[in-house]
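Predicting holo structure, adenosine-5'-diphosphate bound.
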Amino acid sequence: MEDLLSYTKLNRKRINRICREVNDLENKYSSFSDKELSSMTDEFRLSLRNGKTIEDILPDALAVCREAIKRRLGIRPFDTQIIAAAAMSDNIIAEMKTGEGKTLVQILSSYLYALEATKDIDKSKWGSVHILTANEYLAQRDKEQNEKVFSLLKLSCDYVEDKVNSNRKDYRSKKVKAYNSDIVYGTAKTVAFDYLDDNQVKDASSRFINRKMYHAIIDEADDILLDQANRPLVLSGPMPGLDITINDKEIKWACNFVHGIKGYRSKKANVAVIDRYSQFRLDLLYGGELLYDALIFKDNGRVILSNEFQDEIYKGQKSNSLESQEEYFAKDIAVSNALLAEYYYKRDKDYVLVEVGTAKDKDGTIKKVYEVALISQATGRILHKTKYRNGIQQAIETKEELLSGGKYLIKKSTDYIIRSTITYPSFVGLYETGISGMTGTSDVEEFNEIYGLQTYVVPTRKPSIRKDEETEIYATKRYKYRAIVKDIKKHHRRQQPILVGTTCVKESNELCKYLDVNGIKYQRLDAVNDKDEAYKIAQAGRKGMITIATNMAGRGTDIKLEEGVASLGGLYVIGTSKNSSSRIDRQLMGRCARQGLPGKTKYYQSLEDDLVILRYGKYKLSAMKKYYSTDDGLVTSSKVKKIVDKCQKIEEGISKQNRKTSKEVELKIFDLQRNKLFEQRNKLLNASQKEVLNIIIKMIGDYTNTMFENNELFKVKHLIDLDKCYDEDESKYKDNVYKSLLMSFKKSRGNYNVSEYIEYLRGRTLDIVDSYWISHLMNLEEMRKSILGIANFGLSDIDTFERMASRLFQNMNESIQNEVITYSIMPNLKFGSYVISNSDDEEEVKKHESNH
Ligand code: ADP
Ligand code: MG
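Done. Tokens:
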């Protein structure tokens, strides 16, 4: 059984043989000049072009790379590192304990993949190898350290930054350049977000990643592939096509404008609220112009502004530059939101004002502060932490503040919209030759089940002499912290360095309080920046140092022992409570006793810790407390110990199941739909002008068919005269409708400069696609929550979800088609249309700055 999941014995033999060959070649390549060594890269590419496989050149390529490392870094890769790299050319996960030297394995392995990725004579066909690190600091560190080696091997190497620098233009080009390298360092998060961004651009030239994503090597693979597997990455930011978020000033202006407040507009906006988009009747129009300032459709939340009204909105706008175009759009949205806040959302029906405290107003008076809290239409209860998206929440808040007439204040929210989402399992599936990875602690079974990856447990160079003491269980947190403090004091007295790992910041806080009371000095790290973390973690091996860190802090940074520390017993690692996964416990334990050095670990646990309480509840636990000694609260009963162990097992089982379901849902639904949509979008983006016309003509054909299938002809009655098309024979009727739509399309084209018209259509269509996709994603998320949110979901639930999601996708496509066709025929409508999205949102969303 084990051999199916892990790298087979046969392979291990083969790999060991390769390693011997690499050793035999060592003298040959060490006699090469730098120039001769450099030229080997092209040699290898040539061999690969001539039909040799990577397998054939493996010993030579690894020997050359080892030689390059020796020359540029001054260290000689160990056999274990050669073995791991050779194994990784088979797309596997190499498990290597902390400190065994995974950074060099990265170089060796990426060299092999890069040779394949860049073997083509035509450089435009070259792909990149991405090395995905656990944090940004490591990406930068590894790039800086290793680029000397890559440069000797004639490979370009760079790293992509996550942070938006102040100089945004420079930032863009730096990123584009980095992605054009043969070896690209970055965090998985950065690259995944850039990929999502690339699929929302309005023209192909603004993409970040312009080279094939050939292969990814994932460092600390358990983190990205397991721990973070089912948390979707949510790309949020301003509306697509819009480079600026709508600021407070604009919202305020828009609310005043819509209300017809003096100094803004002479009269209140004239608005028609219509139940359904399909009731968009010709009598709302006159000569292609709306008879109202604006229309609001209740069913899909679209807002349409008349030309005249738009002109008024834009009045006072000075230039016609690109920036002002964006400003137009922002104003457009601000006004649309203000209209929705005024005519669509109702206080005490859709939302209520809840008092949340007091604050000083600008004039210094103390006023009450209210929050706009949404009401669930299903239950009538307040939806906590839920906000309207896309600027609507802000518009409602501003409106309420205006209405208060200065009597009270409204708490303001910040806005984001979901532009796109992806999970890591889906993201890493995008690499042409898949992924391989390195990890200190793996879960052989899960890597195989979820990713189909085998794990190779690379033997440590020297046997580990780490001492793991038995976990101590205490009745309460208080007892536990006291015991930990006592333990710290005892070891600190002898100057032995101590690393205390906590499961979260809250736990760090609790522990630090106890340490402070006892006058114990320590350094603390959590959620600060990676660089500080790395620096502090590197200090953790000094005599007398006490470091309190959350589990993730400083991951990937080596803890070197100060002289003399080994004789004190090495680093002592304390875990304040067990994690929801034993793999993470092992990860923390692996921080000490690297490379055969001494070290010791011990875990603590209390019956009040989340892991136990979640499973057993306070009531049952108080019954268990009778098993502890009243002296120090230590629980010695083996029965209780078993229960505590079980808690972790159950938790692991649940997360495993969740990851499996999540992966399945992602694969069957999100991936499928995302790929379809991105494909269509890219087709339009890259299409020649003639092709754009064909795409729309085809759309008209498809849409006509759909309308007849669904009996929904009314959906185009604002575009053509249906009576004139009518025929008793349905196929003739259909043909007439199709021809009539085509005619109208052709006619409308005739009124414009064709090239400009097509570019307008392309841009509009992309906007429409993006805004529908955004609201579709929100609907999907809601559906995921309502169908799969309940703990024990089974396969049939996924099937239900799949069915409903595909129907939703179909509906979205039809709406997109309808709107694109409407625009194509009536481009002069200049719809300032805008989607409402009133989803309940409680998931964690990472704010991602727009890079464009
Ligand atoms: P890991 O990522 O597996 O935890 P690192 O790559 O950070 O380990 O390496 C740990 C330490 O061992 C680093 O200081 C590194 O320079 C050193 N090291 C790695 N490989 C070698 C080698 N072949 N010879 C000498 N030192 C090495
Ligand atoms: Mg490492």
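The two ends are 50 Å apart (CA to CA).
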